[in-house]
User: Fold this.
Amino acid sequence: MLAYRKSDFDALALRAALDEWSREGLIDAHHSASIAASLAEKSPLPFYMPNLFIRIGLFIFGAICAFSVLGLAFLMLEGAHSDREDGFLLLLFCAGLIAVVELLIRREKPFFRAGLEEAFLYGALGCLLPGMLMAFEISGQFHYPMAMVMMAALAAAALRYADSLLSVAAMAMGLFALYDFCSRCGNLPIYVLPLLVIFLSACVVRSAGRALAKPALRYWAHLWALLRLFALFTCYAGGNYFVIRELSHLVFHHGVSVDQEIPCAFLFYLFTFGLPFAYLAVGLMKKDRQFLLAGLITAALAVATFKYYHHVMPVETALVLAGPVLIALAWIALRFLREVRWGLTTSAIPGSAGKGVLNAESLAMLQSFSSKDAPHQAPPGAAGMQGGGGSFGGGGAGGNF
Amino acid sequence: MRPTLPPGLLSAEQQARIDLHYRNRPFSLFWEVRTLLYLGILFLCSGLGILIYKNIDTIGHQTILGLIAAATIACFWYCSRRVKPFTSGLAPADSSWAEYMLLLGVLLFGVFTGYLQAQYSVFGERYGLALGLPAALYLFLAYRFDHRGVLQLAISGFCAAIGIAATPMAAIREGMFNGRTPVWTGLAVGILLGMAALVSDRLDFKRHFTFSYLNFAMHLSLIAALSGLVIGLEWEKWFFFALIAAIAFGLWKYARRKHSPYFLLIAVLYLYAAFTYIVMTQLFRSGSSAGISAAFLYFILSCAGTILFFLNLKSFLGNTDAGLPEK
Assistant:
């Protein structure tokens, strides 16, 4: 199933663990060096794993290269060819790219998170869907049977190449298939769709959590982690008031007007505001960073949902009021958790603090990079934060190894 | 996930110590709390900015100004109380709270001067001064409190005062560098910042500021030169291409010395863009349809070449696994 040698993954994880342990003084440097030496003897760094920036460069140039090949192929076959032939060409191209990916992985030092094989893999999967639609002359739009096929393809690729982003794409595709199926089958399925989404997401959260604890599945640990985080968000989206209300007049083309209240609005509001608190509570009690992150973000989404339908106060007043509240909250947390209480602390503990790029410096840099020309204009709040998302970049939770 | 070590590598005592460590390690909310703090500061300053902008005619100006000034002074006072003696090296880290209070003070000061200028036109028509004075203060604060974030605000403030956008995105969005003057200004500022970087590095005076200076210098000068390449006439095009190649070569030397793949990547991207621009203008000059095939061929070959370059980087650059860009 896995394209890589499992022993290589173990060697990599061991290296990371030795680094961490010697950094934290759990094993002395001399000893860790001798372990590392005996390891290196048995298995040198098993992968070609370049630095993040080289990875970005390889990804960009790999993608341009692949699509130029495709463009040239189409250009050479200019003239007498049908949609069907175009579709087969796309499928051929997809197969070719997969073959290149396999070759890159079968090298003596397999490419792993190297940018190049990722660009080719994503390119191949991107060609697969239009290729199938055109080659098999599936008329009309992209419907749930095709979405199921794509989901299977994405999931297979995610497992084979241990790629966490693809696992998320597979789950998104599956949810789309569910939505498409329900919206085509009359009224009853669409009423149970929110419940189905919530239920399935909760199942994914639970089983991904279990998979994380299973030693036999450790090679895909980063995949389970990202999938779990994504499922936390889709679970929230399944019952979010905004999502339900906007989807309801998308699905029922007639009968529900834009400004009509949805049935059981109270329940959905309860869900919208209750779930973030539940996430935060679970996150703090179980010391689970994913729940914490999901809780913080969904709390912000809950406020945004409410603001979308109810005009309580202008944005700027809300910002001026919310700002000091957040600062005060942070201050209280910093004071209260200066010493460890209930196993929680606010001081940076290497290995335990989540990976953040959110230090004051990089944030100010972000701000100076995202605000229009000077810090004198009102800093664009939302835009600045979106910019921050970009700097995580690349392979999602991939950096954990 | 904790890997299991092959038996015999760790002694039982070490294994027990590691197990105990993982069991007793507290859960750190370091980044979560910092995020809240930053969001709070961001919300407050953006809210104040919009509030003032919208109600410029209706609210009591003195009151608002007084409040903002008081908050700014409170922030700076708090920071000055905790400031450590000045050092030309990296100052020891203070609490994150003080760091963020400085940021809040600086942003509030920006709101304050903006308000002064909008309402009372204190600086009259000299907008450059209105932007430059706070930037000068930021520069001082950045060195005094050893804060790279404030330094970056200062640099972008100076660029705004001169009338150029300091970052690639802003430059593209605002259609900067459409004329020759901004191109030369951008190049001049880039050189100035580059010299600042050189001074920090060579004299070991706040050496950790080098990255910020060099980063701005690199983007500013390369964007300016790229715009010069696009808008320039025949001979200018060659001049600007040579300039980009020279800057890229300089960055390559620097990246090699510092083992910094970040600067290398940026240099390669700009150089590739410039080279591609030259090739494309030559290819499509005659307007024949064969140009498209040739263009695809060019992309395939050039990208393959660049990929090969990246793959064999180790032999050029030394060990690039060293980690993040040195800052």
About this structure: The radius of gyration of chain B is 25 Å. DSSP finds 13 helices and one strand in chain B. Chain B touches chain A through 101 residues (CB under 8 Å).
